[in-house]
Amino acid sequence: MIQKSKPLLDIVRIGLPLDALKLLDAYLAKIDTYKPDNKTVVFEVKEYEEMLGIQRLRTEVLDANLDKLLNHVITLKNTANDEDDDVIKINLFQMARRRINKETRMGEIVLVCNDVAKDFIFKLDDIKYIKYNLEDIIKLNSRYSYTLFLYLKDNLYKKTWTISYPELKVRLGCESSRYSMFSYLKNDILNPCKKEIESKTGVRFTFEPIRKNRSVIAVTFTASEVKGLTDKKKADKKVDTDKMVDVESSKSASTVPVDNNEEKDWKAFYGSSVLAGLAEQCEYTFSKKEMQLIHALLKKINISPAEGDRTGTCRFGREAYLQEKYLRLCQEEENKAKNGESITNRFAYLRKMLENEAEEDSDE
Q1: Which fold has domain 1-136?
Q2: CATH 1.10.10.10 region(s) of the chain?
Q3: Which end of the chain has fewer CB atoms < 10 Å from its terminal CB, N or C?
Q4: pTM (two decimals)
Q5: How far apart are CA 113 and CA 111, in angstroms?
């Protein structure tokens, strides 16, 4: 069982590779948090390989992860002080060693935590912490799944909670402009993470976007945990999966929050697959009439066909072009929000961008 203090949860954001984070978890799993003097942990390389589910860990890869774990400076809030600006910058470990045991002739890993770091690793009763099984997390292959799992574990006691969309992107490390659109975060990150987390751990969760003026401003999570499950086979044997809350398979459950985008027949809603394809690039933000006007403007702009587009209509090229413009709109919206400003009419703003492009093309 791993006990990880709340300050240590934030280190997933500092750029350590996933295998280095798992080394930290392996260390935390072997210590007794009530015995701070026993800060040295020794375990066989083979044991760590088995944790990762691999046959052989290359020496240069292990050395690189040990270097990063040893040398990476992290910033932690001083839990002894309530002031937000009281932070401590430290290295978690004062020594990391790879050696051959002379008696067993087996490779070993030795980790010794820094004396200052002991306050965040041992005697956790005075600070908040979460608990989870090493088996639950060690076989997660995605850094996003690892990060999301810890976030869910930290909030499980709430059962249902809401986080602002900008904060969620920061927590997951998804701050590129691509994820200004929730549909990309959902398809690239949340859905794959949901599949991996639920197949390898006991955590079950759903998520629902909260919209304002058709833009996603927050996400509501509902999560629970099936105790004692470390893989999907055990889950299938011990629980009735038909009764599990699953946003993808239990749309009829009245208590399950569902993303309405998955329920609608967008082709029927917009009247054609062409308009539905364009609307998808804008997260289905605009009405049918607005999408018809956008489509008409796109036809006036010189847009090259997308690679592999054999329709002869530049359809996919227009979709890619519109996606780029919509992302620019979302980015501009975020920039204005930082200054306390807002875009009052998103459609008018996007239409103006397209009209300017159409006008420039007509002048050439």
Answers
A1: Arc Repressor Mutant, subunit A (1.10.10)
A2: 1-136, 140-262
A3: C
A4: 0.64
A5: 7
